[in-house]
Design brief:
The chain is an alpha/beta fold. Helix content is 41%, strand content 15%. It has 2 domains: 6-256, Type I PLP-dependent aspartate aminotransferase-like (Major domain) (Aspartate Aminotransferase, domain 2, 3-Layer(aba) Sandwich), CATH 3.40.640; 258-390, Aspartate Aminotransferase, domain 1, CATH 3.90.1150. Helix 11 runs parallel beside helix 15. The protein starts with 5 loop residues before the first helix and ends with a helix.
């Protein structure tokens, strides 16, 4: 664990300097490394040291700085940087599961996560059980001695359900099951996964870490035994490692991560409070609002509710599209956690391929809108939303 506050660690954590003593972190754009002798090459392949590298798919000095710094921020010993958030999810699950294993997962998951569980892993003999993640009794009933792994989103995308992680970890560990948490929505700054005992935390660094719509990336964080054991073995052989240029770009983005995320979360709360009770809306969802069904759990687990708001527009798809098309500052896109504010209609984009019965189960309706709050002034965003709602 770092001896510094998060904001300081984000600037200095895990720094490695070359013999030139550079101030800004160096970027090592190389796929291979040179050895002084054949004997040195043999020795490195036999016993790879912490500051030694063989091949960029296995590790790279720039990537390792990024891994060390981000894993330190979320409270884990180590991390493995991946090509995307979904590469991190798939890698974490596949590295730890085999045919015949049972996975218990929350039902409210991102569409691609559901595909990996129900289509990919099930195809190879993994048994998948989906539960209502907000119902502790459902976890109690589903997790048994046959359960190998539990998977959930800390805050679900896009409906913002919050799981009682402390309870789930306690139940899972009582049955010797590993717990893997997707913290894309929770953000690395407000993640509670390590503190509450989850074995692995998966982060889409495409989102808040890069935070500027530039590059894909992902990270699997956990104990050194898990990361440098089954996770590294799977990822380095299947080719899911992050490239050094992406690691360098996202390493530099960490300098401002705490400042950006806290500013976005502050604006998100102000917008949510303003929108709640609006006559054109059927409901507003944000973990920090007292009206949120899991408000008490959310506030016990994290100091803020994240950077994303969800609400339901009266009038369904037609009213939603009028709203989206009338917005001037919000960008219509399918990403979230950008410096620019983004608006998404999940039913027709990110979750379009989910069967209607599954959408209904997790609360995605034709009127559901996901707002990702950026770095613009909150008052300007509120004014934009207000004028767009007036046009419905």
């Amino acid at each position: 664990m770092s001896k510094w506050n998060k904001r300081t660690t984000l600037v200095h954590g895990g720094t490695r300097r070359s013999q030139y003593g550079e101030v800004s972190e160096a970027i090592f754009l190389t796929q291979g490394f040179v050895y002084d002798s054949a004997e040195a090459a043999e020795a490195r392949f036999k016993d790879l040291g912490d500051d030694e590298f063989i091949y960029a798919r296995y590790g790279n000095p720039t990537v390792r700085m990024f891994e060390n710094r981000l894993s330190e921020i979320v409270g884990y010993e180590d991390g493995f940087a991946c090509t995307s958030g979904m590469a991190a999810v798939t890698g974490a699950l596949t590295a730890l599961l085999k045919a015949g294993d049972q996975v218990v997962a929350s039902r409210a998951l991102f569409g691609s996560c559901l595909y990996v569980l129900e289509d990919v892993l099930a195809r190879f003999g993994v048994q998948v059980t989906l539960v209502d993640g907000t119902d502790n009794a459902a976890w109690d009933a589903a997790i048994t001695d046959d359960t190998a792994l539990v998977f959930l989103e800390g805050i679900s995308n896009p409906t913002l359900e919050v799981v009682d992680l402390e309870h789930v970890v306690k139940v899972a560990h009582a049955h010797d099951a590993l717990v893997v948490v997707d913290d894309a929505m929770a953000t690395p700054i407000f993640s509670c996964s390590a503190r509450l005992g989850a074995d692995l935390c998966v982060i889409s660094t495409t989102k808040h870490v890069d935070g500027q719509g530039r590059m894909l990336g992902g990270m699997i964080c956990g104990s050194k035994d898990l990361i440098r054991g089954p996770i590294e073995a799977y990822m380095k052989h299947t080719g899911g490692a992050m490239n050094p240029f992406t690691a360098w770009m996202q390493l530099k983005a960490l300098d401002t991560l705490d400042l950006r995320v806290r500013a976005q979360a502050e604006s998100a709360l102000k917008i949510a409070e303003t929108l709640e009770g609006h006559s054109k809306l059927a409901g507003v969802r944000y973990p920090q609002l007292p009206s949120h069904p899991q408000h008490a759990v959310a506030m016990r687990q994290a100091e803020a509710g994240g950077t994303v708001i969800a609400f339901d527009v009266k009038g369904g798809k037609e009213a939603c599209f009028k709203l989206l098309n009338a917005l001037e500052l919000f960008t219509i896109s399918n990403n979230f956690a950008d410096s620019k504010s983004i608006v998404t209609h999940p039913a027709t984009t990110t979750h379009q391929r989910l069967p209607q019965d599954q959408k209904d189960l997790i609360g995605i309706g034709d009127g559901t809108v996901r707002l990702s709050v950026g770095l613009e002034h909150a008052d300007d965003l509120i004014a934009d939303l207000t004028q767009a709602l007036d046009q419905i």
